[in-house]
Design brief:
CATH class: Mainly Alpha
Mean pLDDT: 88
Order of helices and strands: HHHHHHHHHHHHH
Number of strands: 0
Strand content: under 5%
CATH architecture: Orthogonal Bundle
Helix content: 55-70%
Low-confidence stretches: none
Radius of gyration: 19 Å
Number of domains: 1
Structural class: mainly alpha
CATH topology: ABC transporter involved in vitamin B12 uptake, BtuC
Number of helices: 13
Distance between the termini: 64 Å
Length: about 300
């Protein structure tokens, strides 16, 4: 238990930014929009969140600033793909490059600085023996992410608005013919997803590492994209996949602490190898993709005027 509980806590902590970003991107894709700019959104949010937390002294203001930065970049992406019907793939890559460049420029003066570590965890549960100072001592956003996955699953499959969002992702032409505002629905989904990606990036710099460095997202935006396919576009499976990837990330430190003689480079590449393997296995089954993937994913909607 002395080894297991810290590993569980570290897995939840490391999987939270992946889960937040993947849940946000899942809202994009359920509306029929694929966004390749998550890496840039997370980087820009990480820089904005760290700057806000550093100057205000409050991690909550940092998280709010990161969420706002992610939503702002998502608004630009929505303008391109919804209003101007630009290529979703090209617009996503443009958002990724823009976010990466802006974060590198804005974060120059914050390199090498760190934030003060504050007390986290759930007030009553963190006093429990054994699990209190590990599993229940994490940032409240960790537990809020779990609740978000459950809430999003309920929204998508148990509410009229969620079913309408999925209908737009399956057949926007049919939704438009019934009088539903496809463009507005896609825009709201993109903004909500951008906010989640912003929270994920801010979590990395404000809570997880409490410092800023250029490129600190380290491919997590791309891993979040793979998690959506891994989780079959379902929020709860996406959450479990994020914790699996987070556990693989933290396993290297646990094994090294136990004295297991495994090259650190091999352990560090495990999450990325799993990402590639998941994409290869899912792509090898076209029937599975047809059953689970939104049918209008990546296709622009051009209503007849």
């Amino acid at each position: 238990m002395e080894n297991l509980l810290p590993l569980v806590a570290a897995t939840l902590n490391a999987g939270t930014p992946l889960a937040l970003a993947a849940l946000g991107l899942a809202m994009h894709e359920r509306a029929g929009v694929i966004n390749l700019g998550a890496e840039g959104m997370m980087l820009l949010a990480a820089a904005a969140g760290f700057a806000a937390a550093f100057h205000t002294g409050s991690p909550w203001w940092g998280l709010a600033a990161g969420a706002a930065a992610g939503a702002a970049l998502a608004a630009g992406f929505a303008l391109l793909v919804v209003v101007f019907n630009a290529s979703q793939y090209g617009s996503g890559l443009a958002a990724m490059l823009l976010g990466s460049g802006l974060s590198a420029f804005a974060g120059v003066s914050y390199a090498g600085r760190s934030l003060a570590r504050g007390e986290t965890g759930l007030p009553l549960l963190r006093e429990l023996p054994w699990v209190g100072n590990t599993v229940f001592a994490l940032h409240p956003l960790v537990y809020a992410t779990m609740a978000l996955a459950v809430l999003l699953a309920w929204f998508l499959y148990r509410t009229r608005a969620g079913m309408l969002l999925r209908a737009v992702g399956e057949s926007p032409e049919s939704a438009h013919a019934l009088g539903y505002p496809v463009g507005r629905i896609r825009t709201l989904a993109i903004l909500a997803g951008g906010l989640c990606c912003g929270l994920a990036g801010a979590y990395l710099s404000v809570v997880y590492t409490q410092l800023w460095s250029e490129g600190m997202v380290a491919g997590r935006g791309w891993m979040a994209l793979a998690l959506i396919a891994f989780g079959m576009w379902h929020p709860l499976w996406i959450l479990l996949g994020a914790y699996l990837f987070g556990g693989l990330t933290m396993l290297q430190f646990q094994l090294q602490g136990m004295g297991v003689q495994v090259p650190s480079q091999f352990l560090a590449m495990l999450p990325y190898v799993c990402t590639i393997a998941v994409l290869a296995l899912r792509g090898a089954n076209p029937g599975w993709l047809r059953r689970n993937m939104p049918r209008s994913l990546g296709r622009p909607f051009l209503p007849e005027r």
